[in-house]
Design goal:
Elements lengths: L15 E9 L3 H8 L2 H7 L3 E6 L10 E8 L2 E13 L3 E8 L2 E12 L4 E12 L2 H30 L2
Antiparallel strand pairs: 1-7, 2-3, 3-4, 4-5, 5-6, 6-7
């Protein structure tokens, strides 16, 4: 699966952006180790029930894995690929699912003299099928709520250590 092969949609208004930030009271290295490692992220986010690596590598650009999470009463599985990785700075995860390319960038920035970290997330959804172009904007609130839940879970997990 090469997630970056899909062109941007002809109608850019069908794209959605979700932006979230959290201040986490631990050093940036601990935050990055949690978000950039699929196994660690799974331990931090209780809705993720399984992770299966599809590549031999476990971190860095080219890492591919399948994540299964509980969504409501069902389980949903998504394949993700790391397409950008700068240790202790940022990681980009891309998934092509349901006629949409989901592009998520996590950025970590030390704050308060390094005693805390600002975790920023920008998720862009680029639908490339007709049905997706209709559904993705309608799902924006639910997606933002789920992503905020993940960010809150990561914050709670790290600050509880």
């Amino acid at each position: 699966m090469r997630c970056g092969n899909h062109p941007r949609p002809a109608n850019p208004t069908s794209m959605t952006h979700t932006r979230l930030s959290r201040i986490i009271r631990v050093p940036a290295t601990a935050v990055f180790e949690t978000i950039a490692n699929a196994t660690n992220y799974t331990n931090a986010v209780p809705e993720i029930v399984k992770v299966e690596f599809l590549s031999d590598q476990r971190s860095g650009v080219g890492t591919r894995f399948r994540e299964t999470r509980v969504m409501g009463r069902r389980e949903a599985t998504t394949e993700l690929e790391v397409t950008e990785y700068a240790a202790n700075e940022r990681i980009r995860l891309v998934s092509d699912a349901g006629g949409t390319v989901w592009d998520t960038l996590f950025t970590v920035t030390p704050v308060e003299d390094g005693d805390a970290t600002r975790l920023d997330l920008v998720m862009e959804a680029r639908p490339y099928r007709l049905l997706s172009r209709i559904l993705v904007p309608l799902m924006k609130r639910a997606v933002a709520k789920a992503v905020a839940g993940d960010m809150d879970a990561v914050t709670a997990h790290l600050e509880a250590r």
